[in-house]
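Structure in, sequence out. Go:
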């Protein structure tokens, strides 16, 4: 029944009224399965993409050597390494005289700047953290190529990426859906008030839950379209309002009691 409801939630607005009569357990199972299905699908897609991009990234790493606290990259020549699919880069500037500012790094989409003796990393998008290669337990690293790194650690890197994705994606969906359900519920209250429809609070809440499958489909369409980058809040709110309007058409209007003077 839950799977059938998921499919009907995409196109059958009248069916929402029947779903709203079902128990809270049914709504909870509905949203749980939605999270499971969409998390698995998203994780698989991202894992395949990440594996390909990571391989390209690692194999393109210039020759690297760390000796006596000094880093030698690309035979000591400045280099920039772009991280595929993220629009950011890592720079090697061996003769850098002054620490890079947070503004310069953000303006050039740089997440880290390496020199012979130090590395500067953006921290929380508000500051630059400095570390030296001679601090801590830093060890000497013999001259190594990107090809050698991937051939040695490629499988480990891919497995670590997949595990990370399969942990982060479900957690992200849970937090996102809490927010999306709240905004869908808000849209529902507004539309119900404007249309003067007789619908109870619990019915409206369950309707907001059931709307999330169309919302997730819309998120997929926007997220996976190449070159499209948009804040999903506005599209989600508009979609929720449109669905609520169509669903509420199947509820009766409120009766207005007029008391005689």
């Amino acid at each position: 029944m839950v799977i059938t409801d998921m499919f009907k939630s995409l196109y059958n607005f009248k069916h929402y009224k029947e779903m709203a009569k079902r128990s809270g357990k049914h709504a909870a199972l509905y949203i749980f399965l939605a999270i499971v299905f969409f998390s698995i699908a998203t994780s698989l897609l991202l894992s395949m993409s990440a594996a390909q991009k990571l391989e390209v990234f690692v194999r393109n790493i210039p020759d690297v050597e760390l000796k006596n606290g000094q880093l030698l990259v690309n035979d000591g020549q400045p280099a920039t390494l772009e991280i595929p699919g993220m629009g950011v880069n890592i720079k090697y500037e061996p003769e850098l005289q002054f620490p890079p500012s947070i503004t310069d790094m953000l303006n050039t989409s740089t997440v880290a700047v390496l020199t012979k003796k130090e590395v500067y990393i953006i921290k929380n998008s508000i500051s630059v953290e400095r570390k030296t290669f001679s601090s801590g337990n830093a060890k000497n690293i013999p001259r190594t190529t990107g090809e050698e790194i991937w051939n040695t650690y490629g499988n480990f890197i891919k497995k670590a990426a997949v595990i990370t994705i399969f942990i982060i994606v479900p957690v992200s969906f849970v937090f996102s859906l809490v927010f999306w359900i709240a905004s869908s519920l808000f849209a529902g209250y507004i539309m119900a008030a404007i249309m003067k429809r007789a619908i109870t609070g619990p019915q409206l809440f369950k309707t907001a839950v059931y709307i999330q499958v169309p919302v997730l489909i819309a998120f997929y369409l926007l997220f996976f379209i190449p070159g499209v980058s948009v804040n999903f809040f506005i599209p989600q709110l508009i979609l929720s309002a449109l669905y609520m309007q169509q669903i509420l058409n199947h509820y009766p209007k409120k009766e207005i009691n007029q008391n005689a003077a």
